[in-house]
């Protein structure tokens, strides 16, 4: 069973990106379990003075839940042609401490929901680039941006969202299956383990232990 943590990059109560994450369960492959982090509103702006052995409680929770997950799904809006600050701030916190970051060696899927019809791909690319630079492996294709999200996402009477377009559902299904394959392969964790080992050899210091799947 692969444990996947879903994080929405939007704080808005009626967020389309949060709804997109809530629409994923019917598309999950066998053996994948999805849990939702909740919103990121409690994570303070990154401040190195607060990044101590006892960081703010919500930061500690963010790091703990990311570290415990086998993989991540991030749903990221696009603000002003770029990744929104709330997402970058969460990544800043999760990328530290540098010796053993929570957000490294993970399989990650990045999705975007947007109300526009021409936007979304820049945010997708920005987020993927930052995550790859932290030694994560991001599902590269097919790239999926759910545009015109007000029409693309339907909400049932019980409040459950779903994707209206069969093609979009199929593409995201492929992505989710690839995410599961990445987790099962162990490649993301192996990449991080190699980085730590080779860096330690170069610097002549003991290697920090890499996490393993439970």
Automatic annotation (TrEMBL):
NADPH-dependent FMN reductase-like domain residues: 3-149
Organism superkingdom: Bacteria
Pfam families with a match to the protein in the record: FMN_red
InterPro entries, per database record: Flavoprotein-like_sf, FMN_Rdtase-like_dom, NAD(P)H-dep_reductase
Stated name of the protein: NAD(P)H-dependent FMN reductase
Biological source species: Actinocorallia aurantiaca
